[in-house]
Request: fold
Amino acid sequence: MRCILVIIFALATWMLVSCRSSQPKPESHPESEVISNDEPIKPIPTKIDLDTRKVALGKMLFNEVKLSRDNTISCASCHDLEAGGVDHRVHSIGIGGAEGGINAPTVFNAALNFR
Reply:
């Protein structure tokens, strides 16, 4: 039985090794590549046209405690804009002091996260 297992392992290993491509990968030249609009990562634009009314509304909603279930916390409670948009905790604290399962991800540059 042990001999059969060794043979099966050897065959599986041989098959994996023989399936690898023997052709070298073509060289990439990032300076000549064009970034399309479908790319997930884009350069930060040098100028963003903002509607001041939308910015004011966003700031109001971000700090509004009435949007929470018990009217005690807002987005700003965990996403501290003075600390990079995070709360620097392993698990964020929510309504009634309940500990969440994750920390607050940053909201820094969130205005750039749109399509």
